[in-house]
Amino acid sequence: MNKFSLLLAATFISAPLALSHQSYAAENQSVDHPAATSEKPSGSVYMTFHSADVGVGYTWGSGVLKYHGKSYKFKIKGGDIVALGFSKSQAKGHVYNLKHIYDFAGNYASAGGEATAGVGVGAANMKNTKNVVIAFDTNTMGGRVAGAPGGFTISFVDSKLQKSAKASKKAAKAETTTEDLNQQQLNKASK
């Protein structure tokens, strides 16, 4: 048996053992969050991730952002550089530095590391190019080994809101005011 086959077998054989301790760990352990900010959160997030990995990994999922009393649904796509296995993760956390709703969408990368406190329980910080930080705790089920947290892209389910997010990105590149471009996109979408 080669090393890859042994690693694959070990991952899937250990999954039931990890799952049996999963609920106990989630209910009885807390994670010290690696968030490096004492700032008040801008909002909160609830996410579900699915990851399927054989070498290069792929992650997909969905979530809800609670911001200024409203709920915004979003989609997640991304990957890991080195990972093996399959998992499903539930995550909840807070969003920091979010000044405009459309700044939430975009590409996120690991910011500030990752912490784990037992089987299936962890925490991470992800940051996008607009300096928006998502600090979240995870509860993971499945058999999966990953080298480091990868990045992901968030896009809004609401097409008008997603167009505003894209307009915001274009404005930053063109040095046009974000508010002007955003208003133009919303006007076009409402026609």
Automatic annotation (TrEMBL):
Keywords, alphabetical: Signal
Ranges annotated as biased composition (Polar residues): 179-191
UniProt superkingdom: Bacteria
Signal peptide positions (record): 1-25
Statement: the UniProt record of this protein carries the keyword Signal: yes
Disordered, as annotated region: 167-191
Name of the protein described by the UniProt record: Uncharacterized protein
